[in-house]
Specification:
The protein has 12 helices and 14 strands. With 338 residues, the protein is of the alpha/beta class. It has 2 domains: 229 residues, 3-Layer(aba) Sandwich (Rossmann fold); 83 residues, ACT domain (Alpha-Beta Plaits, 2-Layer Sandwich). It has a 6-stranded mixed sheet, sandwiched between helices. A hairpin with a 2-residue loop joins strand 1 and strand 2. Helix 3 packs parallel to helix 5, helix 4 crosses helix 5 and helix 5 packs parallel to helix 6. Pfam families: ABC_tran, NIL. This is Methionine ABC transporter ATP-binding protein.
């Protein structure tokens, strides 16, 4: 649905050039919720503006539904943009307009008849659960309600793609999950392709099927959540299923392994099987279990007795569909979130 190839964006600031995006390649499949995560200054907002051609890329291409957006101009570009809905960080509603009038605005711009506008606005407010707030002004709505109005407005022109730029960063935790649930529901009901730009890893964990890490204007990692998690040495894998960055103080001798397993294996008694098979005591140092993109994953850190044959134990675990690697003491939170 979305394909970006060799995308570069350079800005000139006084006498120097700033490379905001550097050779970005990205593919978002149809019907996917794809999270793009990165710290402030990573290039996330620039990427959004290039996706909608509000900023022209310096070089490279942006294709949506097989159409090269970067080759369009004038009326063709305006028509193509109508198939892209945009949800902003703070909703960006017109304070002087009611919820219904805010949703109606994109339809008014394209000279839609009043009868069609009224019917569409009612349909969309029903869809986001705000039918009874049609006549309310933004100041009378909560943050979550304002964001729902913003989502309804983004859907007014029946887009194929929904771009969400930090859609939950100004919301409390429960409202965040409510909005993400709405986005997931709309993806399923309307068969949307969704891109969520965020600096919050919990948004990726809760809502996304795939994720890309944007750092210093470059895509450093990208893939489905299931594939990314299994690359146990990567920053994204550590961030999605974190383990402590340090070992416990006064830890005795013995090899320390990080175990990763998924699906039905994530609920099986792996440690119990290990102790029975080798007749050893296993010290569980830390662990995390998460449901990511509809599949359960477990990430454990264990310590084995000093005399353990690590390679034999790794082979045994591999036969149980469990990846076992020497512990990597990585704290990804400072790298991925700001």
């Amino acid at each position: 649905m979305i394909e970006i190839r060799s995308l570069r964006k350079t800005y000139r600031q006084k006498k120097r050039q700033v490379q905001a995006l550097d050779n970005v390649d990205l593919r978002v499949g149809p019907g996917q919720i794809h999270g793009i995560i990165g710290r402030s200054g990573a290039g996330k907002s620039t990427l959004v503006r290039c996706l909608t051609l509000l900023d022209r890329p310096t070089s490279g291409t942006v294709s949506i539904a097989g159409k090269d957006m970067s080759s369009l101009s004038g009326k063709e570009l305006l028509q193509a943009r109508r198939k892209i809905g945009m949800v902003f960080q703070h909703a960006n509603l017109f304070d002087s307009r009611t919820a219904a009038a805010n949703v109606a605005y994109p339809l008014e711009l394209v000279k839609t008849s009043r009868a069609q506008i009224n019917a569409k606005v009612q349909e969309l407010l029903d869809l986001v659960g705000l039918a009874e707030y049609a006549d309310a002004y933004p100041a009378q709505l909560s943050g979550g309600q304002r964001q729902r109005v913003g989502i309804a407005r983004a859907l007014a022109t029946d887009p194929d793609v929904l771009l969400c730029d930090e859609p939950t960063s100004a919301l409390d935790p429960q409202t965040t999950y409510d909005v993400l649930d709405l986005i997931k529901s709309l993806r399923n009901r309307l068969r949307l392709t969704v891109v969520i730009i965020t600096h919050e890893m919990h948004v990726v964990k809760y809502a996304c099927d795939a994720v890309s890490l944007l750092r210093d204007g470059r895509i450093e990692e990208s893939g489905s959540i299931h594939d990314v998690v299994r690359h146990t040495g990567s920053d994204l894998s550590h961030a999605l299923l974190p383990l402590p960055a340090t070992l416990p103080e006064n830890l005795g001798p013995g090899p320390v392994l990080d175990l990763l397993y998924a699906g039905t294996h994530a609920t099986e008694p792996v440690i119990s099987g290990l102790t029975k098979r080798f007749g050893i005591d296993v010290n569980v140092l830390a662990g995390t279990v998460e449901e990511l993109a509809g599949q359960q994953f477990a990430h454990l850190r264990i310590q084995l007795p000093p005399e353990s044959d690590v390679s034999v134990i790794q082979n045994f675990l591999a036969a149980q569909q469990v990846t076992a690697q020497p512990a990597e003491l990585v704290d990804p939170t400072e790298e991925l979130e700001s």
